[in-house]
Amino acid sequence: MLTLQNVAFKYETSQPFDIPDIHLDAGGELLILGKSGSGKTTILNIIAGLLQPQKGTVTVNGVDLYSLSGSKLDKFRGSNIGIIFQKPHILSALSVEENLKIANYFVSGKGDQNEQILKNLGIWEKRKQRVQTLSEGEAQRVSIARALANQPKLILADEPTASLDDENAAKVIKLLQHQASQFQAALVIVTHDQRVKNHIANQLTVGGAR
Ligand SMILES: Nc1ncnc2c1ncn2[C@@H]1O[C@H](COP(=O)(O)OP(=O)(O)OP(=O)(O)O)[C@@H](O)[C@H]1O
Asked: What residues does the ABC transporter domain cover (predicted)?
């Protein structure tokens, strides 16, 4: 489902990052740990097709991401990769269900699972509410729902528990795992939150720039 091979990356002003090879099957889970600034978000962006490495290949669902042209890559990402960003990328003036429909809009024919996803995440009753009227935890579940709206084959989550208490942090990880297993998706979580460690056995730690 996901492979990273011989990937090398550096920002213009930084040292190169140590980026391990990764192989993850459908339904597999991976936790990427590392201190703040160690390059976790950078690696996630490379996996998401948002940041082209200087070297190496990233394949998702058998497709070499960076061999795709810009618009093809955007379309591929929209149908195959669900990203839960560190800072929620949801539109707070729109309702919960409108946020999901926008994601569906970019991938024609999807959207049939929206009701189930919102129910699983416990926000179906709030679907008509504008996101700005929700609590932080609810808004975060909307961003998870939106990432799942097109039943991606690969789910990427950047620090999904950062602003949550222990109980809700555990809940969010379980929800992500449950959703991933329901769609047989691969799940990659990056975090420096040690609490997440107990929930996912397959782990790697990144050390940052050399
Ligand atoms: N666009 C950029 N240009 C130059 N340097 C960058 C850029 N983005 C990030 N960096 C640097 O690369 C390093 C890794 O950043 P990154 O955001 O990947 O770390 P992180 O492990 O996700 O950190 P955190 O846990 O704090 O979110 C940092 O030193 C950061 O300052």
From this structure: 2-209
Q: In which element (H, E) is residue 36 found?
A: none
pTM: 0.90
36 CA from centroid of ligand 1 (Å): 8
ipTM, two decimals, is 0.96
| Nearest CA, atom 11, ligand 1 | 37
User: Is residue 134 one of the residues assigned to a domain?
Assistant: yes
Q: Which range marks the domain in which residue 185 is found?
A: 2-205
Amino acid at 73: L
DSSP state of 196: G
DSSP H/E element including 70:
helix 70-80
Angle at 102 between CA 161 and CA 134, to 5 degrees: 45
For residue range 153-179, list pLDDT tens digits in order.
Answer: 999 999 988 877 888 788 889 989 988
What's the domain count of the chain? 1
For ligand 1, the distance from its centroid to the CA atom of residue 96, given in whole angstroms, is 31
Does any domain span residue 210?
no
Say how far apart CA 78 and CA 55 lie, in whole Å.
24
